[in-house]
Amino acid sequence: MTFFELLFFLLLLYCLVYIILWLYLDCNVDLWYNSYFGVPVSAMRGQVVWVTGASSGIGKAVALEMAKNGVRLVISSRREHLLDSLKRECLEEAKGLLSEDDVFVLPMDVLEIANHENCFEKVLKHFGRLDVLVNNAGRSQRASWEEINIDVDRSLFELDVFSVVNLSRIAVRYFLHQSGGHGHVVVTSSVAGFCPAPFSATYCAAKFAINAYMNTLRIEQRSIDVTIFCPGPIATDFLQEAFTAEPGEKFGQSTKNQKRMTAERCGKLYAVSIANKLDISWCGLFPVNFLAYASRYPGLAKIIFKLMGKTTMNKIREGKL
């Protein structure tokens, strides 16, 4: 066997192994590797992490995973009674690693942009510092493209994009001028932010937009760590609150009995991506991981999505395949 034949064989083997991993894993390869061999979440012990949208779902799972590893927390959402309950759970999970003062309940409606500075000051007053901002608050959507009222587009972008950008800018300015130029901004995006899903046009557009905002920040401010985490279908109450085509409506459907990753598994992977400061990561049960990888290669994505069609793609998205 010549050198070039050996090189070709090794390249072919490498590609084959990667494709098998795409099919087998429930997250991207880099995240999977770091979950076993990377920086453990426990290395973040003592840091201050602010999680918005923390009262349920992915935000709650991330907060609990952080608490388990002794990370000091700011937990925010509109529902204060659920935050109080989460605080008790965090302290139980911490098993003595955290005190009462190490979990700060900060009720907050992220849509009230004028209040962001005030909330940020409360965090600094309580802890004296902030190390990581996790922008997790947001809503999904289910609607046909041509039926969507433009006011829904505006409302969803206000929540999933503009509120995230505004709070992140406050954090970045703090990191640059008061924290030695270093800090970590994290956003909960979606696989739909780079792999468009049918019947969620506004949601997909919002996640594409927030990815672009954060990737640009990464280029401009090299001292700031930026992590984009992109879950696929997760077993939460996300669809209950999802936008539809009309203003004020909620989708109101349950995700029970659907094929979805558990919030706990998602929270653990999310925490790993934060601890390892990964640029972009994603997760989801088969075949979500494969489709996420395929979407990174436009030629391959065009072939696969054309073969699948919108019906099959929607079934995957709704956990019915």
UniProtKB/TrEMBL annotation:
Keywords: Membrane, Oxidoreductase, Transmembrane, Transmembrane helix
Alphabetized Gene3D superfamilies for the sequence: NAD(P)-binding Rossmann-like Domain (3.40.50.720)
Keyword Transport: no
Domain of life: Eukaryota
Keyword Membrane in record: yes
A GO MF term: oxidoreductase activity
Transmembrane domains' residue ranges: 6-25
InterPro entries membership: KR_dom, NAD(P)-bd_dom_sf, Sc_DH/Rdtase_CS, SDR_fam, SDR_family_member_7
Stored Pfam families: adh_short (PF00106)
One of the GO BP terms on file: lipid metabolic process
Domain Ketoreductase: 47-237
Annotated family: Belongs to the short-chain dehydrogenases/reductases (SDR) family.
Protein name: Dehydrogenase/reductase SDR family member 7
Gene behind this protein: DHRS7
